From TrEMBL:
Transmembrane segments: 6-23, 28-45, 57-76, 97-121, 141-160, 172-194, 448-467, 479-500, 506-524, 531-552, 572-592
Stretches assigned to the RCK C-terminal domain: 206-291, 299-383
Keywords: Membrane, Repeat, Transmembrane, Transmembrane helix, Transport
Cell membrane as UniProt keyword: no
Main location: membrane
Taxonomy of the source species: Bacteria, Bacillati, Bacillota, Bacilli, Bacillales
Protein name, per record: SLC13 family permease
Amino acid sequence: MTFNMIFVLFLIIAMLAVLLFDLARPDMVVFAVLVILLLTGILTPEQALSGFSNEGMLTIALLFIVAGAVQKSGLIDQMMKGWLKNSKTQTGSMIRFFVPISVFSAFLNNTPIVVTFTPIIKNWCEDRGIAPSKFLIPLSYVTILGGTITLIGTSTNLVVHGMLTGTYGMQGFSLFTLAVVGIPVALIGLVYLFTIGRRLLPDNKGFSQRIKEDSKEYIAEMKVTGDFQHIGKSVKGAGLRDLKGLYLVEIIRENEHISPVKSSTIIKHGDRLIFTGLISTIADLEKIKGLELETGTTIGLNDLKNGTSNLIEVVVSHESVLTTKSIKESQFRSRYDAGVIAVHRNNERIKSKVGDIVLRPGDTLLLLAGTDFLEKYQQSNDFYVVSSLDTPPSLKQNSAKGWFSIALLVVMILLVTIGLLSMFKAMALAVLILIGCKIITPQEAKRYIQFDVLLLIASALGIGIAMRETELAQWIANGLVNFGEPLGLLTMVFMVYFLTNLFTELITNTAAAVLMVPIGIALADQLNVDPMGFAVTIAIAASASFVTPIGYQTNLIVYGPGGYTFKDYIKVGTPLSILVMITAVSIIYYVWF
């Protein structure tokens, strides 16, 4: 091995370790490695920047905008709500709901699909006395399965396609190249979820359900009497801003509800102060002269929702800046104009001071927030909004524009299918039409783009080039050939699938794909076989993340709302992962080798 090979291998191992232990945001970790490769001269500026101009990466950016325009209309949401109303049995409901969802996921980004339908499913389940945990893991899994059907079904497919065309000068995938494998995989996955998988799913009450049942544990009411020495002072001046384990979420003043409560809000005689949090510390408040505990309070969590505030349930993203500090240190309340009422992790509420909790990816937060919270932060990288709030008026769109967006997407897909336009040209034209016809504004288009995902992809593509240029990929491929060639080509395909899938479960799907594509291409050269077979293997394996909640972001989105534990994913996802691997490798071996 040369020094450059050893150095790049060391960087990749260090990168995998940082990603595995969630020590920093994935996009910044991968970008940092790219910068090191640039500064050390292993990559030229042109090579380091090539990922940022890669057609596959730019196509993903355009797809974010097109998918955002379709989601904005809310038409798909309305259709699925109506479709669910006629469902009678649990299995029948799963079939009616998840078969169309898998089809949508073949053509739309699966993350907003899961974010959108999580509250819809939760409400539907709660209305019928069904545990949401019976539906939320399947929601994530079917969107992953549907994404394997087409080139645009998931960003992973486009990344592999971009590497084939940009880095290696190959033809890449057509729109339906992956359908040969994706359709059988999706069908087998759906059958498994409707039969065996359904029985393995836990019967958990959702976080919001348990909160509603135990709302007295979260709410305490204090009345301000004439003896309170801080009447006329601000909340901060009265010492009610930083309480031990308690949070002042609302002030009721006659018929007025003041929420969220600001530091500058003035305390008046007769105010009813509504606290939430660690209610066991309420005794500290009772010691304050002039504050009387209302033991018979009728206030519940649902009563906190009013014209100026709403209860919102969010899930912390794996890319959130909130995961490195406590809630207090991150200045959550002032940053988002929202207060954290409770935090849920591993199917349990964290019973400690809210401000001292250091958040982790997958944590579910119950927030009391302003009415504009959903509009402001629906595209936030810090968390996924999954609460069942009505769409704010500013997000609603008339049905004519909604149908136009859907029709435009269908037309573009047809143009790509018959070969008149490439995927990049079709999506660029679609975005131009959407903005030109004022279906979306340029500002909205900018919000729909997930720049952190693009930075991760572009940086990872540069690392892939470094693996090729230093011949590290060739060295690893030689090792795999020496080990696996005596066992046969089929075993080699299984090995590539397994390694890719393992990386996906431990780090991210995009990083796994970028690491494995150079190895797969070098392996094909060594074995003198069609490299497209290994490319398809890597694309499918990198998407098929079912065993952990951290491998794919849709798994993380449903983690908290479903009240799941890590073991639930292992129990339900492992058989599915094995089924998908056997099916995919068998078809790939027959078709391409």
